[in-house]
Amino acid sequence: MAQYTVPGLDDKTAAQVIDVLQHRLAAYNDLHLTLKHVHWNVVGRNFIAVHEMLDPQVELVRGYADAVAERIAAMGGEPRGRVGDIEEVRDWDDYSLLRDTSAAHLAALNKVYDGVITSNRKAIETFESEPVSQDLIIGQTAELEKFQWFVRAHLEDQSGAVAGGDKSTESGAAADAR
C-alpha cells in the first residue's frame, strides 16, 4: 500500500488505479518484447517493410511502459517491471511464433493488438474517478489502434477481409495467413 498518493485522490481509489496500471505496465512490457521478437524472426515477402515498421512501435511501447511506471510511482505505488511481474499478472498466452513469414507474424500480432487494446479500453472505463490516468491510457490506446491499422493494412485484401481476422488465437490467425 502506498504511503501517499497524488493530491485530491483517496488511498482506496489510488490503490485500485495503481493495480490497473500495473496490469497495463505488464502488458506494455510484454508487447514491446513481442514486437522485438517478431522484428528478429520475420522472414519472407515484405520482410524489410515489416522489419522496419516494428522498431518505431517497439520504441513507442517502451515509452508507454515508462510513462505508466512513472504514473504508478507518482501515485505512491511501486512499478513492477520484472519478467516475473509480467508473468504474475498475465492473463494472456505467451506469443507462440518463432521464425515465420511476415504474413503469419502480422496476423498473430493483429490478435496481440486485439488483446492489448481491449484491455486498455476496460482500464479506461475503470478510471472514471481518475482522469489523469484515464487520459494517459486513452492517448496510448489511440496510438496502439493506429499501429494495429498498420498491421491490418498488410493483411487486408481488396474486399476488406483481413487474413486471420476471424480466428480467435494467434496461431490460428498465423496459419490462416500463411
UniProtKB/TrEMBL annotation:
InterPro entries: DPS_DNA-bd, DPS_DNA-bd_CS, Ferritin-like, Ferritin-like_SF, Ferritin_DPS_dom. Residues 19-157 form the Ferritin/DPS domain. It holds the Pfam family Ferritin. Belongs to the Dps family. This is DNA starvation/stationary phase protection protein. It comes from Luteipulveratus flavus.
